[in-house]
């Protein structure tokens, strides 16, 4: 884009001079040579601006490098540098791909990146360098595929993507390490220990803590080997959770790894003890030779403590069980048998309990339905309907039907007939009649029941019995 603008600026004076020296001023208007001479500068300038518009589209470049490019070792650190560049600017962080390699431990970028400025074909590019940290675990050749990065540069109409070139490297096992052993490869190493006594002098029941600190420059913290703490007769060993962390320069650049292991020994018996020395082999990348770091042995003595009593004396319990016979209380055996019998009975009778519960629920539901369909339920609704505005007599009709008094209110007795005339006669007195009806509900019920008894007694018996039939 910059070169096109420079060419246009250089050609502008020439084109102006060409236009000024053109002989078209003295030629006729229809002269084709004069027309070409006049339009040629315009066409050239239009082409230059078209090229400038095409060159204005932002670009995205991705480059990958290995550091070191050669000489990788098992247990060492290989840095994959991924450069993401553009000729404008980035509106947001780039989307980086995941990298997984069989036989290697890969740590992705942690969000920190190094700013870059590079020039390609006279065009200035700027961007960021991301770092993948790779620690090979086996001796083999590792192939890194092309990595696709997505980003949105400034002035871009959509998200762009670009790929890096595929790479590969070979890792070899450092000399002095056996097959299956985890090598420690670093540029520098510090191996120290700290011993803390819980009391002075140590007695039975006291403890001693041994803490080992391993710092390795140029190595990943997760790749540091685990020191081996041995068992010591007369001491109980308790290993604590290790502390593994990375060492950096405060700006996101990983310098190495650190591992802190702690173990506590409790004194079980009086005597003299010695915690063995621990040696750590490592390969010096700078000097290209095998080195060794070692912490010395720890010796101490513990005296008897007559006041100390173990919280749980397993030895005495075992001895007591060996001397005495195992006895069980008859009372506890009886209660245990009763409990087992109850549990067995509940398990066996569970289907019967379920069926009984279902029958009880069915009877309860049937009683509820019978109550809702009874004359008594309908009789309870009459008072509320008579107090409503406007008053209703549907519950009264329902009560008559369920009481088998017929569907005509006049058949329910003379008292109800008089009230009906007050409601539906030629000169009805509705309010007064409703008040009387509410006050005489009990009387109406008695009269209706008597009327029902009379109707029942009026029926002829189905099987008449005469006195002469009996001796």
Which labels suit this protein?
5-stranded antiparallel beta sheet; disordered N terminus; disordered C terminus; about 30% strand; about 475 residues; alpha+beta; 9 helices
Explain what this protein looks like in three dimensions.
With 471 residues, this protein is of the alpha+beta class. It is built from nine helices and 21 strands. The strands form six sheets. Strands 1, 3, 4, 5 and 6 form a five-stranded antiparallel β-sheet that branches. Strands 12, 14, 15, 16 and 17 form a five-stranded antiparallel β-sheet that branches.
User: What fraction of the residues are assigned to beta strands by DSSP?
Assistant: 25-35%
Ends: how far apart? Answer: 139 Å
- Report the principal-axis shape: elongated
Quaternary structure:
single chain
The number of distinct helices, counting runs of at least 4 residues, comes to: 9
**DSSP strand tally:** 21
Derived structural class: alpha+beta
Poorly predicted parts: 1-7, 466-471
Largest sheet: 5 strands, antiparallel
Helix share, percent:
25-40%
Q: Tell me, rounded to a whole number, the average pLDDT.
A: 80
The helix/strand series, from N terminus to C terminus, equals HHEEEEEEEEEEEEEEEEEEEEEHHHHHHH
The radius of gyration is 52 Å
């Amino acid at each position: 884009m910059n070169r096109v603008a420079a060419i246009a600026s250089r050609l502008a004076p020439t084109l102006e001079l060409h236009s000024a020296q053109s002989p078209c001023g003295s030629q006729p208007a229809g002269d084709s040579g004069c027309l070409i001479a006049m339009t040629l500068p315009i066409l050239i300038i239009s082409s230059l601006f078209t090229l400038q518009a095409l060159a204005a589209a932002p670009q995205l470049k991705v480059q990958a490098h290995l550091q070191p490019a050669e000489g990788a070792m098992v247990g060492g650190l290989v840095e994959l540098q991924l450069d993401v560049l553009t000729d404008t600017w980035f509106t947001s962080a780039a989307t980086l791909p995941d990298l997984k390699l069989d036989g290697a431990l890969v740590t992705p970028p942690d969000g920190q990146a190094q700013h870059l400025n590079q020039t390609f074909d006279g065009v200035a590019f700027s961007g960021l360098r991301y770092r993948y940290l790779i620690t090979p675990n086996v001796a083999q050749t590792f192939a890194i595929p092309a990595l696709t990065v997505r980003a949105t540069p400034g002035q871009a109409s959509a998200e762009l993507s670009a790929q890096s070139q595929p790479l590969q490297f070979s890792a070899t096992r450092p000399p002095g390490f056996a097959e299956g052993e985890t090598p420690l490869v670093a540029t520098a190493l510090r191996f120290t220990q700290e011993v803390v006594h819980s009391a002075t002098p140590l007695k039975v029941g006291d403890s001693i803590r041994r803490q080992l600190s391993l710092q390795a420059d140029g190595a990943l913290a997760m790749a540091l080997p685990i020191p081996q703490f041995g068992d010591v007769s007369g001491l109980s060993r308790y290993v604590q959770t290790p502390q593994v962390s990375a060492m950096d320069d405060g700006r996101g650049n990983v310098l190495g790894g650190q591992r802190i292991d702690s173990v506590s020994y409790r004194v079980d018996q009086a005597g003299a003890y010695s915690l063995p020395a621990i040696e750590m082999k490592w390969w010096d990348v700078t000097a290209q030779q095998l080195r060794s770091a070692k912490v010395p042995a720890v010796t101490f003595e513990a005296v008897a403590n007559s006041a100390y009593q173990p919280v749980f004396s397993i030895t005495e319990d075992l001895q007591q069980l060996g001397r005495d016979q195992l006895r069980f209380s008859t009372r506890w055996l009886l209660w245990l048998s009763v409990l087992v019998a109850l549990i067995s009975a509940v398990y066996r009778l569970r289907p019967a309990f379920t069926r009984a519960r279902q029958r009880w629920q069915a009877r309860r539901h049937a009683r509820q339905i019978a109550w809702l369909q009874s004359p008594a339920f309908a009789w309870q609704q009459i008072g509320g309907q008579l107090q409503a505005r406007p008053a209703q007599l549907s519950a009264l009709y329902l009560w008559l039907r369920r009481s088998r008094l017929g569907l005509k209110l006049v058949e329910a007795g003379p008292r109800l007939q008089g009230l009906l005339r007050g409601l539906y006669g030629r000169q009805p007195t509705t309010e007064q009649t409703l008040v009387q009806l509410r006050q005489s509900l009990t009387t109406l019920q008695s009269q209706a029941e008597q009327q029902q008894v009379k109707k029942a007694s009026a029926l002829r018996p189905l099987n008449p019995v005469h006195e002469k039939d009996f001796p």
